[in-house]
Amino acid sequence: MAELNGIDCATKIHQDVAVGLKAAGIEYVGRYLGDSWKSITKKEADILVHAGLKIISIWETNPTFAGYFSEDKAIADGKEAIAYAKLIGQPEGSAIYFAVDYDAQPADLPAILSYFLGVRQSLGKDYKAGVYGSYAVLDMLQRSRAADCYWQTAAWSRGEVADFIDILQFGFNKNIAGIPVDYNQFATSAGSWGKSLVPSPSFQPSPPPSSATTYTVQPGDTLSGIAARYRTTVLDMVKANNIKDPNLIYPGQVLTIPSSAGLTEQIEYRIRPGDALSEIAMKFGTTVNQLRAWNQIANPDLIFAGQRIRVK
Questions:
Q1: Is the pTM of this model over 0.90?
Q2: Is residue 39 within 8 Å of residue 61, measured between CB atoms?
Q3: What is the spatial distance between Cα 309 and Cα 273, in angstroms, rounded to a whole number?
Q4: pLDDT tens-digit map of 56-115
Q5: Domains, the chain, ordered by start
Q6: 144 bridge partner residues
Q7: Which burial class, exposed, middle or buried, applies to 236 when counting CB atoms under 10 A from its CB (0-12, 13-18, 19+)?
Q8: Cα dihedral 145, 150, 156, 161 in deg (nearest 10)
Q9: How many helices (H) and strands (E) does the chain have?
Q10: Where are the alpha helices (DSSP H) in 162-286?
């Protein structure tokens, strides 16, 4: 089960939308570099950063066929991407993602590899080279060490998920805060930029007892899952927050954690190919039901390689 903690979109984001995204539990926003109708501006970048959101920079003109990809094109794209990234204030050392936005076939991969080797040469030490594409594209580039950051789309991936990716794009043509978006799960900071990184909600370490007084509900949260996370009960949560229906909580809602809750440090685990939830539970001395509660896993048989879950 993928966890929603990031989005990408072609829509320019204004202040009210940025606030709405943050309230909905979004931490990362993917936006386009370049001079087009869908490109991010310096003003928009400032709005996102001020709202506490992290930005993922995307370079995409028309990478939808094999003929697009060549070393010469890579050098040109890299130079343009650097110039625009600096124009909007993107700091050096963060990533720019270059897209392979189609169902690339095996015969296309050599040209794509040549392109990304050119991208890395063009970016030099200024920015990390990120790639957006299918499982086959990312697998080839990772084995060739031709990129620094990896963003896999479920489109054209035929159900496979790489275990080394930084981002998984898993939902398409959705809507959050009134704008059309695609859903993403960030397993790492993925070369993002903005304010200091806030860990993904499902894996955020519990604060010490002296400061652990509230929790902001994230998309996909349940009261039972939150109660399990803070080692308290649904009944105590209901009483502490005067909740009439424990099945009705919403993203952005701030809940009081009962003072009797037994808080503990959390540990996360990155699922590997062939893992089963029962084996993970045994390895970390817990139960399948506890893992399901901590991570809001509806079906224990539906976990995937690369997914990060709380195990303690």
A1: no
A2: no
A3: 14
A4: 999 999 999 999 999 999 999 999 999 999 999 999 999 999 999 999 999 999 999 999
A5: 6-197 (3.20.20.80), 206-256 (3.10.350.10), 268-310 (3.10.350.10)
A6: none
A7: middle
A8: 100
A9: 9, 12
A10: 223-229, 234-241, 277-283
